[in-house]
Amino acid sequence: MRLRVLVAVALVAIVAAQLAVAWARFGTLDAGFVIVIVGLGIVLFYTASGWIGTVTRERQRHAAMSVLPGVLLVPRSIEETAQASLQLLAATGVADAGLIAIAQDGGEATPTATAGYPAGWADSAPPISLPRPGSAPLVARDEGRHPWVLPLTRRVAERPWVARVPLVSGGESIGLLMLAARQQGLLADRPLLAALAEQLAGALDHAALYEAAYARERNLEELDTRRREFMAAISHEIRTPLTSIRAFAELLALDEESLGETAEQLVASLGQGVDRLSGLVNDLLDLGKVQDGQMEADLAPLDVTRVLREGENLLRPAFMLRQQALELDLPETRLTALADRRHLEQVVLNLLSNANRHTPTEGAVTVRAWRDGDFVRIEVEDSGPGIAAADRERVFEPYYRVQRPGAPAVPGSGLGLAVARRLVELQHGHIWVEEGDTRGARFCVELPASGAQE
User: Fold this and answer.
1) Contact at 8 Å (CB) between 68 and 199?
2) Residue 112 three-state SS
3) Distance from first CA to last CA of the chain, Å, rounded?
4) Any idea what DSSP says for residue 93?
5) Of 78, 206, 377, 378, whose Cβ has the fewest other Cβ atoms within 10 Å?
């Protein structure tokens, strides 16, 4: 509008200048000459005005088509996406006011975002039936009698131009875009309105996915909080009675004279059950601490061979009970790695316990360790049934158990290897499983060697 006024002023100035020159030269103005000059000025004005209007509409059209994709770049909720889209459409001159209504249950739509409306109007706005999917944008001069247009008559005009454009996604109507303007302008461009509605429907789809992902994340956080509370309850409610049961079992075992053979077996079974439950609770607590980031590693130079020998001493009775051979193939010299003593001891005990459970009676388990470049490598190899290639990664998942048709169930919680992996990774190491030399399983651990380059 301002540019047209400037053009009109310039043309009036030119016409006046031409008439002044003619008056100064001839001392009079011929009527025909005046008519020609004024006519040329009018023609030039309308030509320039039309050209300016075309350029302005093309610039607005280009701006409207290019700004909406920017809404997709920022994750927003449905309401925020709708509000940002309306503000962009108003800023680019497509409309003076508008609203976006989203479909609700029952096939009706209610305003989700508005621009140019009185504050709080959308809270009490009436619902409206959605148009059929695929229907063309409806553009008309509204008399202000529609309940969604009535609040705009004073702000926009008494008879605003109104465009009602359906929002369609996946062949279904998801809402309605209504735009109002003082002049028809870009509202007459139905292909533009259809393209804007398509982009807006895509933006709302993305917003719905964002809201669903955000809600899922919040749900997972809530579930994780409940899990931590449950783990804390386990540590308190289960450990206390287990301690009492273990104490009574030890007292009974001391009274060997009054116990018969059957009673001794029952007391021994009771002690083994308590130890198994205690190990399960400890595995659950350790796994929860590592996953929550509550467990840290105090890395320092550590003699790996000493840790392996101590683990062998602790679990030697379990191997003797099943008549299994436990062999250590360790170097005579000190083998030092950057590790956390408590975490590495737990890893060794978990791997040896796993080998003890899966190795048959009178089988063999071999423990090796050596320096391999910048790493210290530990291997625990058993002579059990082995692990199929498809299961070698999944055995480190919590609660995963390898299924062998026809084979007896092996006791265990399914947490030992999961805890071992997380503790090894906490020490900047790696753990994996491969086929052993005797077709059993070979669990390998690599830890950074002390003094090796980072």
Assistant:
1) yes
2) strand
3) 68
4) T
5) 206
Report which DSSP code applies to 332: S
For 275, the token pair is 């130890």
CB count within 10 Å of CB 10 equals 14
Tokens standing for 445?
A: 């651990």
Identify the pLDDT of residue 211: 85
Q: What are the φ and ψ backbone dihedral angles of 301, each rounded to 5 degrees?
A: -55, 130
By CB neighbour count within 10 A (0-12 exposed, 13-18 middle, 19+ buried), where does 2 fall? Answer: exposed
Residue entry with tokens 């995963």: 400
Structure tokens at 176: 């309605």
Alpha-carbon span 257 to 270, nearest angstrom? 19
Residue 365, classified by CB atoms within 10 Å of its CB into exposed (0-12), middle (13-18) or buried (19+), is buried
User: Given a cut of 90, is residue 375 above it in pLDDT?
Assistant: yes
Contact 351, 443 (CB under 8 A): yes
Q: What is the pLDDT of residue 337?
A: 93
Strands 161-169 and 300-303: unpaired
- Specify whether the CB–CB gap between 315 and 349 falls below 8 A: yes
Task: Judge if pTM exceeds 0.85.
Answer: no
Distance CA 427, CA 421 (A): 10
C-beta of residue 81 within 8 angstroms of C-beta of residue 71: yes
**Of 278, 413, 417, which is closest to residue 351 (Cα–Cα)?**
417
DSSP string, 194-212: HHHHHHHHHHHHHHHHHHH
Could you tell me the two tokens for 361? 């009676």
* DSSP type of residue 449: B
> What are the backbone dihedrals phi and psi of residue 112, each rounded to the nearest 5 degrees, phi first?
-105, -35
Q: What is the DSSP letter of 71?
A: G
Indicate the SS3 state at residue 320.
helix
In the chain, the amino acid numbered 167 is L
Cα(208)–Cα(379) distance, integer angstroms: 50
Give the residue from 151, 202, 145, 154 showing the smallest Cα distance to 177: 202
Residue 28, Cβ density class (10 Å: 0-12 exposed, 13-18 middle, ≥19 buried): exposed
- The DSSP result for 9-49, as a single string, is HHHHHHHHHHHHHHHHHHSS--HHHHHHHHHHHHHHHHHHH
Contact 447, 299 (CB under 8 A): no
Q: Which of 172-181, 268-277, 282-291 has the highest mean pLDDT?
A: 172-181
**Radius of gyration for the alpha carbons in the chain, expressed in angstroms and rounded:** 41
| Beta pairing class for 325-329 and 364-372 | parallel
Average pLDDT over the chain reads: 78
